Amino acid sequence: MSAPSKKTLAKPGVKNIVLVDGVRTPFLQSGTTYADLMPHDLARAALQGLLNRTGLPKDAVDYIVYGTVIQEVKTSNVAREAALGAGFSDKTPAHTVTMACISSNQAMTTAVGLIAAGQCDAVVAGGVEFMSDVPIRHSRKMRKTMLSLNKAKTLGARLSLLGSIRLAHLSPELPAVAEFSTAETMGHSADRLAAAFGVSRLEQDEFALRSHTLAKKAQDGGMLSDVISFKVPGRDIVSKDNGIRPATMEQLAKLKPAFIKPHGTVTAANSSFLTDGASAVLIMSEEKALAMGYKPKAYLRDFVYVSQDPKDQLLLGPTYATPKVLEKSGLTLNDIDVFEFHEAFAGQIMANLKAMESDWFAQTYMGRKTKVGAPPMEKFNTWGGSLSLGHPFAATGCRLVTTVAHRLQKEGGQYGLVAACAAGGQGHAMVIEAYPQ
Amino acid sequence: MSPMTTGFWVKGHGQRSLSVSSAVLARTHVSYEVKDNVAVVRINDPTSKVNTLSRHMQAEMVEVMNEIWGNAAVKSAVLISRKPGCFIAGADINMIQACKTAEEVTSLSQEGQKIFDQVEKSPIPIVAAINGSCLGGGLEFAIACQYRIATKSKKTILGTPEVMLGLLPGAGGTQRLPKMVGLPAAFDMMLTGKNIRPDKAKKMGLVHQLVDPLGPGLKSPEERTIEYLEEVAVDFAKGLAGRKVTVEKKKGLVQKIQDFVMGLPPVRKQIYKTVHSKVMKQSKGLYPAPLKIIECIQTGIEKGNAAGYLTESQNFGKLAMTSESRALIGLYHGQVTCKKNHFGKPERDVKKLAVLGAGLMGAGIAQVTIDKGVATILKDTTEEGLARGHQQVYKGLNDKTKKKSLTTFERDGIMSLLSGQLDYRDFENADMVIEAVFEDLSIKHKVVKEVEAVIPPHCIFATNTSALPIKDIAAASKRPEKVIGMHYFSPVDKMQLLEIITTNKTSKDTTASAVAVGLKQGKVIIVVGDGPGFYTTRCLAPMLAEAVRALQEGVGPKKLDSLTTGFGFPVGAATLADEVGIDVAAHVAEDLGKAFGTRFGGGNVEVLKMMVQKGFKGRKSGKGCYVYGAKSKEKKVNSGAEDILKSFKLTAPPAVSADEDIQYRLVSRFVNEAVLCLQEGILPDPVQGDIGAVFGLGFPPCLGGPFRFVDSHGADKLVQKMKRFEEAYGNQFTPCQLLLDHAKDSSKRFHK
């Protein structure tokens, strides 16, 4: 480990904000044990788990911010519904944020903002994603007819409206993991991105295998201590992620491309899978945490959000965000001991690593003089990542931050870096500092 | 085995007798390398922005392919262009034009046929990797290959545009395409010359695979996309060589049924008949190429390959010698010239444009401007007018999303550049103002003064008038060097022409800037001198006056239309008057009548004025020469207009009233005025005269424009006809001096 260039990132006149603790439900492949729940049920489990883990008095929480991507229309402010169900005081306000795969990062930084501004002292942040059930809508034509039906006053008017329904009205609208602006699915974009950076199928399969192997090792070694057990109503107690499946390279090589056929390189095995899961963290001002007798896990320091072309640079968020946040903190890549990057696709990670290694890319597209450099693999996602642990869109951000805190504690490092890409061509990065042990 | 004994390529062209070794050293257009038993052949014409199948390119290609076929280690090949926007744009037109006889062109065609025949029979599979334009000879090359992969880039288009040059696909295209895409689709492609986008091409079976264009990576998107295309193509080439990829795809039920139906001779016969009659109806028999294309396809299918290829090469030779093909090729070259800025680079780019008047023209100008990413203010005086104009722009763009040439997000992004407003806010940041307000000098003067009070000193004031002299409008300006005419044609988003009018005070930089804006808007531009009606309106007015006279003489609107379309005008004279607007026509006729006197006489202006009085303003008012809005396809003549014509009835002099006479009365007045414009210096050259007439006024493209028409018809013959008309009608038919000069000396020609 290299010597840190600075001892601490504390700034005079700026409040120290700490991560007290973080938990998550096991991340399950969608359609498995969580299949009959609703999103707020999962969120509730995470929130309750956080209360149990920290022993936090419920009325000590000033505010709750929660992220979600695919919204269940019945619980559009899922933060509030989950908080009420988790037994938080009905006096604690809660709001929901959405920013695709960095929704819970947004929830956390919102919390940081509330505390930094002196408006709150203790905020719970988190995120939930529930892909086992997604809102499938009637077609626009059908919706229009049904809405008119509400307003129709006479029987005749109602019958004539009903009579206007045609077979075409009945075809439903399914949500797609596609950009609204370009109509391109994310997997397709990832495949093009991998091709643009010349990432081979082999490299992608190797990275996917690495993720699963490391996740398995972490799971078996008891590293994934953020996972709480969850008694699913009507089912068993779930206490483990169920998507970790180390395979052989031969098995991976057999799969056909999933998006660009027949010559693409992104397959089901080197992409993150549809996942159900929820996460939650407790964020406090350092003073408050200490006053309440907590031993914080980490400082949450500088963070940035970036955005770029949603068509050709959809998933390059980490490349843009990393140098920016490092500069803000006055650190270099060498100062970072722990990297946790969101793995949307193996091809996306490899493309980002290549972009970060390229002076040409930095100069041509980022307006920088030189590259920031790629993180060394021995520090990178060493407990697995979204490819293997799973990726419930809005829950992943908290997992990344909590994992950095845990790894810093385990490995004795000083600084950690979280980075993630998100739909819409956006991205995020945050520097996390170990809390003195 | 040596290349000679494999006997594949025809020996290069007669003119090349270089030895192989020196040719290798001299190779500049075609190169290749062998990667993993795949020969990657890369084409790049270093002398041009596009690749064409010039003699040079063909000769090098022959050498390279012979080497590849002679190399036992090569199991398959990939053909790819190194140019980002172009695979092969077609045959070299100059090579065809340089031929003196039909036989020469036929032998060119036969050489091409032989080359592609050998490509088709290649012992190793060849994959054409297509990025950018793949047109004409380029497509014929590609379809001779065993496999085709195209990028989905916006620049990738496939097509056979030869028909638009009065030619046909002369290197096997008429024979291979029907087999590949089926008879109906092949006819459609070759008879319309339309561009086919990659998605459609895949559906039609024209290409086998599509490759997505890539964004930024470790190289520029363009460069990396070509590399990626090559990588994918090399993989497929290996697959083909190893028989892991098959060329034939399974046919669906629809395809099987279609194949069965097309297998029945009576069905095919019916198709030939239908296509033939459709072509005759649309071309009036004035264009020989479509008919020859039908003949080639029919011969190939009904009489076999040998007969088909022979017919193709012979017809290609014949077509190349037709005046129609020369006219169309002339227009092609003219268009290329008129898409360049001959006035240099303007001192500053127009980054913000303001359009005054949200009417049909104003909104159209705004649409083509924002479409190219230039922020535009659209100002009107009333909210209703503004809303209408705004809706017109939106609809124009939205229609493109329906055709999928634009996404809804691109549409919204483009619309965000438009600022609709009723006041002069932000005019202080405008680099150019184009006014499209009502055609009235006093209103124009008022607008000039109002605008000059708010715009910055560098801002150019352009006026979109169709007849008012620019210098009269500029008279109200404090800075006439910044005043210029920009005459757009309606509908602005469809009509390609822009006529730019300079006064003797307009500065060169102002002109350069106006041309730059027009080019950005995608226009074909002619730059002409100032005067009443400039060039285009001035040519059209006498022809319309003659049309009114013919109507007064009892030639009905339908007959008049069929006479003019029968001469090659895309729109008949009566319909054209309705489209332009009877009120506009009356306005122009009166103005120009005052300026030019009896030469612009003929029909009585009162006819038009009376029609306007009765509300017959043309299509826009629902009634003109015809009645509009009825659902039936057949247009009905407006009986009200007929009554007016009756009350202004003239007796037709029998000596000059045969159908052909009426046609030449109309055309000769048009042509004479055009030549006079050149004589007077309004027009700088015949090329711009031809382009303006064809692209702005619909002068018959098969005649190539008024000047080419004089050359091909013979000035002397035209003058003879005009003299006959002059006797009957007077000075409207007096040939101008320049025309007389050409009539006297047959060696004088407008085009070399």
UniProtKB/TrEMBL annotation, chain A:
Major localisation: endoplasmic reticulum
One GO biological process this protein is involved in is: fatty acid beta-oxidation
- Specify the enzyme's EC class, one word: transferase
The chain positions of domain Thiolase N-terminal read 17-287
Q: What PROSITE patterns does this protein's entry cite?
A: THIOLASE_1 (PS00098), THIOLASE_2 (PS00737), THIOLASE_3 (PS00099)
Tell me the compartments it is located in: Endoplasmic reticulum; Mitochondrion inner membrane; Mitochondrion outer membrane
- Give one Pfam family, short name only: Thiolase_N
Identify the catalytic residues: 101, 391, 421
Give UniProt keywords alphabetically: Acetylation, Acyltransferase, Endoplasmic reticulum, Fatty acid metabolism, Lipid metabolism, Membrane, Mitochondrion, Mitochondrion inner membrane, Mitochondrion outer membrane, Transferase, Transit peptide
Please give the superkingdom of this protein's source.
Answer: Eukaryota
Assembly notes: Heterotetramer of 2 alpha/HADHA and 2 beta/HADHB subunits; forms the mitochondrial trifunctional enzyme. Also purified as higher order heterooligomers including a 4 alpha/HADHA and 4 beta/HADHB heterooligomer which physiological significance remains unclear. The mitochondrial trifunctional enzyme interacts with MTLN. Interacts with RSAD2/viperin.
Q: What does this protein do?
A: Mitochondrial trifunctional enzyme catalyzes the last three of the four reactions of the mitochondrial beta-oxidation pathway. The mitochondrial beta-oxidation pathway is the major energy-producing process in tissues and is performed through four consecutive reactions breaking down fatty acids into acetyl-CoA. Among the enzymes involved in this pathway, the trifunctional enzyme exhibits specificity for long-chain fatty acids.
Identify this protein by name: Trifunctional enzyme subunit beta, mitochondrial
TrEMBL record, chain B:
Q: Where does it primarily localize?
A: mitochondrion
Q: What is this protein called?
A: Trifunctional enzyme subunit alpha, mitochondrial
Hey, which pathway is this one from? Answer: Lipid metabolism; fatty acid beta-oxidation
Which positions are catalytic residues?
499 (for hydroxyacyl-coenzyme a dehydrogenase activity)
Q: Which family does it belong to?
A: In the central section; belongs to the 3-hydroxyacyl-CoA dehydrogenase family.
Task: Show the coiled coil region(s).
Answer: none
The record's section on InterPro entries has:
3-OHacyl-CoA_DH_NAD-bd, 3HC_DH_C, 6-PGluconate_DH-like_C_sf, ClpP/crotonase-like_dom_sf, Enoyl-CoA_hyd/isom_CS, Enoyl-CoA_hydra/iso, Fa_ox_alpha_mit, FA_oxidation_alpha_subunit
Q: Which UniProt keywords apply?
A: Acetylation, Fatty acid metabolism, Lipid metabolism, Lyase, Membrane, Methylation, Mitochondrion, Mitochondrion inner membrane, Multifunctional enzyme, NAD, Oxidoreductase, Phosphoprotein, Transferase, Transit peptide
Return the Pfam families for the record.
3HCDH (PF00725), 3HCDH_N (PF02737), ECH_1 (PF00378)
The record lists the catalysed reaction(s) as: (3S)-hydroxyhexadecanoyl-CoA = (2E)-hexadecenoyl-CoA + H2O; a 4-saturated-(3S)-3-hydroxyacyl-CoA = a (3E)-enoyl-CoA + H2O; 1'-[1,2-di-(9Z,12Z-octadecadienoyl)-sn-glycero-3-phospho]-3'-[1-(9Z,12Z-octadecadienoyl)-sn-glycero-3-phospho]-glycerol + (9Z)-octadecenoyl-CoA = 1'-[1,2-di-(9Z,12Z-octadecadienoyl)-sn-glycero-3-phospho]-3'-[1-(9Z,12Z-octadecadienoyl)-2-(9Z-octadecenoyl)-sn-glycero-3-phospho]-glycerol + CoA; 1'-[1,2-di-(9Z,12Z-octadecadienoyl)-sn-glycero-3-phospho]-3'-[1-(9Z,12Z-octadecadienoyl)-sn-glycero-3-phospho]-glycerol + (9Z,12Z)-octadecadienoyl-CoA = 1',3'-bis-[1,2-di-(9Z,12Z-octadecadienoyl)-sn-glycero-3-phospho]-glycerol + CoA
Residue(s) at site: Important for long-chain enoyl-CoA hydratase activity: 140, 162
One molecular function GO term is:
transferase activity
